[in-house]
């Protein structure tokens, strides 16, 4: 499978009324950032930062939170980043594919862009593990506010909720979202109302809308202020989901949802928490739950738990989508993908699901509290945001044709802000920040090893292969016996003879009446129009070259390819009279051939052995498949 640039299809159309899309965006996109009030303000005043709870400090940190949301979420993501859409799709891999379009002929820039882009994608997996753990744990910790007797049950209840969440994934994102979606609207209305009640008692905290409070706080507390930026950043986690989920809802519904409900509700809650802790300093241990009336505490814990499940659902489904994109772009081995509805975006990846489940459980058991997990949380998200800015600078300069001063002024200034947040979170490296870095580095090594290993393997196959055109011409002088039926040879290259065909000729000494070389090509666009799905070229002596074009958000399917060939070119395939020939390469690591380090050779060989078989991934009828093996040294 190779990746080439295709003519860009028309931008995806977002169906349904604006109101329905806005409601859907509230339920899916904003779950993560919507649960940040559970822990953001209390972490800012944790003892490790050494910031006393004074009115000036409360107003300063509140002002930092407010203007961070304005700058990073409203301006950076809603105004600037959503311009960088890859035919309607957002997210770091879509942005990477967009940035790579203009790097042809610039190998150094190309590999730099690939390196930082894939590392950002790898860090997203770390975020996908930490978000469910910290979100659900912080919600269940509200039981401790009701009575200390519940403290011993927080971990078991958290693990029970997470277990149910991951077991529900098999039912599909749509069903899970439809079940919990309306809760998100109730959640934002509840936290907004709760904050407004406290704000009404002390409206003076509205002065924090002046950015001067944030500036004065940073000048008065330079080092503690720098360290507390890591806690302030917790109010922004989940902001990258606005861009990543743009393809599902479109930019307009996401902007409407943020400005009409989500942002006002978050502001009211943060202002309310600040007003409450100014009147009740002891409440800083858990201001979100402390300002809930006694009669509403248990319902709020239940509502918060549902909201954190939704937040977790967003990153889990995001991990599924990113995995499929990475498979199509050639960075991840083939994995089993299950479609849970007719929508192409609704998929379930068992390996990713259960890997995340195990990792999340270990995080909950290892860190024991949301405060401990907060040390590990921010660094993964902050690193992803910085990398998105770097890729956006490439897109703005090479595709949007911005002047360099404009790139530096607009996107560069955003990168500087994100870099400060990353540096503040990096200080907590030894206190737990090493966890997402370790996870991200390990996944990055695997992704780049698979990409590099596949390139080396294709090079070896090409070196050992026979050019297709001379081979077909040579069959005229020594034609082999032909048998009835069709043979489809799946090939990763279009100009060399598939090894499976050579093995078949060598051992069986026959050819089929109709022989098709099928190559599946992944473009750097999300979707390829159906009318461009297949490209057929008639060769000599009953041979055909068939290319099937797919976008990086689509999954190839043999039935669809054969049907498209019949509609467009009149090619009739009787599946019961068609044999599919596949090469199954066995990778042999060796230090005698220059390529990768030996440990990477062994890693690639292990990943190759455990990849899903092509018959399962491409939905090929297993009783019509012939696999012929070959050994490849890398």
Write a structural description.
- 61% of the residues lie in helices and 10% in strands.
- It is α/β, with parallel strands linked by helices and 634 residues long.
- It folds into two domains: 433 residues, Amino acid/polyamine transporter I (Up-down Bundle), CATH 1.20.1740; 168 residues, no CATH class.
- Strands 1, 4, 5, 6, 7, 8 and 9 form a seven-stranded mixed β-sheet that branches.
- The radius of gyration is 27 Å and the shape is elongated.
- The chain starts with a strand and ends with a strand.
Question: Which secondary structure elements does this structure contain, and how are they paired or packed?
Answer:
Layout: E1 2-4, H1 18-28, H2 31-34, H3 40-44, H4 55-80, H5 92-100, H6 107-140, H7 142-146, H8 154-168, H9 173-201, H10 211-220, H11 222-232, H12 240-244, H13 246-249, H14 251-279, H15 287-290, H16 297-328, E2 338-339, E3 347-348, H17 350-367, H18 370-398, H19 404-426, H20 429-464, H21 468-477, E4 481-490, H22 499-508, E5 510-523, E6 534-538, E7 543-550, H23 558-569, E8 578-588, H24 598-610, H25 614-617, E9 625-633
Parallel strand pairs: 1-5, 4-5, 4-8, 5-7, 8-9
Antiparallel strand pairs: 2-3, 6-7
Domain count: the total is 2
CATH topology label of the largest domain:
Amino acid/polyamine transporter I
Low-confidence runs of at least 5 consecutive residues: 1-16
CATH class of the largest domain: Mainly Alpha
Number of helices: 25
**Proportion in β-strands:** 5-15%
Percent range for helical residues?
55-70%
CATH architecture of the largest domain: Up-down Bundle
Give me the CATH superfamily of the largest domain. Amino acid/polyamine transporter I
Secondary-structure-based class equals alpha/beta
Radius of gyration: 27 Å
Shape: elongated
